[in-house]
Amino acid sequence: MELFNEVNTVAPWFFPTMVFVLGACVGSFLNVCIYRIPAEKSVVFPGSTCACGKPIAWFDNIPILSWLILRGRARCCGRPFSIRYPAIELLTALLFLASWMHHPPAKAVVGMVFISIMVCATFIDFDHMIIPDRFAIGGAVVGVLLSGLVPALHDQAVTPYWAINATRAVLEAVIGMFIGSALVLWIAEIAEVVLRKEAMGFGDVKFLGAIGAFCGWQGGVFAVFGGAVLGTIAFAGILIFEKATGRAASPAAEPEQDTSPAPEAGGDSKDESEPESAIGFGRETPFGPMLAAGALLYFLWLHPIVDGYFAEVYKLLTDFS
């Protein structure tokens, strides 16, 4: 710890820079997971290949930079590939950096795990309208386990006894998991009765359980309502775009190349186009990305404000009673 403090004092830019680079590399691996996991392919083998079938050299697999250097085209055949690859790498790097800048080191590292789950689930849901159980159920299990290892995740490092702090943190995670899932389940059931059709997939219910395990019940509740607000704003923007341009706001089909390396794994050969995702009123819309956006907003920036708000509401209710 003394070495950490010394380095941080002498070179305060060092750790943030390393975290940003780590985030870009992890984002590169997430690109692999986003494509391969729904296709039930290994995220380890084979290595990265172009859509034309040729292997991608390591120097063309550098996160973010390779896309910029190659100007979005494969070196081997000149095919264009999606800007989404470097965008996910940059997004993950920025979110990792935000976690590091806003939390103590241990909680920040756990936050990086949480961010990776949110990013992966978000783009898989965008593409396929599913959230795999490894991110929903698996994410909930990981959240509970990490809560016990790092009680500060739920602000429970308040006593000198680690076992007490860990027990309280695990309890917070379990409560968050069940309250989050139950809240979405009841919203889905009520919406189904009102709309007379399925309004929300069960994957969203399980996914909010994972969010609650990392963020507690306050984060789970905020993810639902904060995500709904963010989704409404996004829908409004899309509708304005469609009204102004006269065309649907769905991604254009283009040849794909996977230039997304994993730290210990390779990418994919993609001949097909990116799945189209039209979003708007009257269309089937993924809710997972909205939940993830609300959860990340809470975890990285708003948790003191949101927790304070719920504490005030609880105080008013108890005083009234």
Please tell me what the overall shape is: globular
Number of DSSP strand runs = 0
Q: Quick one: biggest sheet? A: none
Mean pLDDT: 84
Number of domains: 1
| Rg of Cα set | 21 Å
Low-confidence segments, given as residue ranges, are: 250-278
SSE order, as H and E?
A: HHHHHHHHH
The percentage helix is 55-70%
SSE class: mainly alpha
Instruction: Compute the separation of the termini in Å.
Output: 48 Å
Query: How much strand content do the residues show?
Result: under 5%
Oligomer: single chain
- Number of helical segments with 4 or more residues: 9
Features:
321 residues; mainly alpha; 9 helices; 0% strand; globular
Q: Mind explaining what this structure looks like?
A:
There is one protein chain. This protein has helices spanning 2-10, 14-36, 65-69, 84-102, 105-128, 133-149, 162-195, 202-245, 288-320. The protein has 321 residues and is mostly helical. The chain has one domain. The longest helix has 44 residues, at 202-245. Mean pLDDT is 84; it is low at 250-278.
Describe the SSE topology.
Elements: H1 2-10, H2 14-36, H3 65-69, H4 84-102, H5 105-128, H6 133-149, H7 162-195, H8 202-245, H9 288-320
Helix pairs in contact: 2-4, 2-5, 4-5, 5-6, 5-9, 6-7, 6-8, 7-8, 8-9
